[in-house]
Amino acid sequence: MSVYGYIRVSSKDQKEDRQQIALKEVGVELRNIYIDKQSGKDFNRPQYKKMLRKLKKDDLLYIKSIDRLGRNYEEILQQWRILTKEKGVDIVVLDMPLLDTRRGKDLMGTFLSNIVLQVLSFVAENERTNIKQRQAEGIAAAKAQGIKFGRPPLPLPDNFYEVHKAWRSKKITLKQAAEACNMPIGTFYGKARKFENVA
User: Fold this and answer.
1) pLDDT-derived band at 182, boundaries 50, 70, 90
2) Of 15-24, 69-78, 101-110, 175-184, the least confident
3) Is the whole-model pTM more than 0.70?
4) Is the pLDDT of residue 175 over 60?
5) What is d(CA 164, CA 139) in angstroms, rounded to the nearest whole number?
6) How many CB atoms lie within 10 A of CB 168?
7) Of the residues 8, 13, 15, 120, which has the maximum number of CB atoms within 10 A of its CB?
8) Euclidean distance between the first and the last CA atom of the chain, given in angstroms as a whole number
9) Annotated active-site positions, please?
């Protein structure tokens, strides 16, 4: 029997130290800890896939909490089935002692852990939905306060106003105007419309 640990953080700048310490405390060796730094929306993660290939029957997998496994309700349940039923691996979720497949292998134990797993998976996905909603609300509030997102617009070239005037008085074509300002046609047209609305 080999003992493994799985860690997931949502982005490259997040630290995995807390999860790593928890896994080391239960005896998982560093070489058997797999770490992914990406969203938990699906299981298309390189280190998770690598670990899945390595796991064998009767191996033991430790995870700090169910949301570290993933945040998609259906996929968490599917992966749990693959790990426990198809691969025959035991799983221990450190933050939730009821989710320890080594215990309660009888019908009642399995029934209880299945209920707990379903509830926690639902909570994990719900939290993901709430995070997305909070982000959207935060962006909307910031925009309402006039905060701009993305790169600041480049300043207009020095010759823009005279080129714009020549284009509007039909002395040059839109294509020629864009070329004179060293811009794509769409960009020149967009800037021209914006300038006209302000003027």
Assistant:
1) very high
2) 101-110
3) no
4) yes
5) 34
6) 12
7) 8
8) 75
9) 10
DSSP E strands in the chain: the ranges are 3-9, 33-37, 60-63, 90-93
- Residue 92 and residue 107 in contact, taking contact as beta carbons nearer than 8 Å: no
Structure tokens at 199: 């003027």
Q: Please answer whether residues 3 and 32 qualify as being in contact, where contact means their C-beta atoms are separated by less than 8 angstroms.
A: yes
Residue 92 and residue 63 in contact, taking contact as beta carbons nearer than 8 Å = yes
Q: How many CB atoms lie within 10 A of CB 43?
A: 17
User: In the block, which residue shows the tokens 């997305």?
Assistant: 132
CB atoms within 10 A of CB 3: 17
- Rounded Cα–Cα distance for residues 79 and 92 (Å): 14
Report, as an integer, the average pLDDT of 142-163. Answer: 82
Residue 198 and residue 164 in contact, taking contact as beta carbons nearer than 8 Å:
no
Nearest to 117 by CA among 130, 134, 100, 104: 100
Beta-carbon count within 10 A of 169 CB = 8
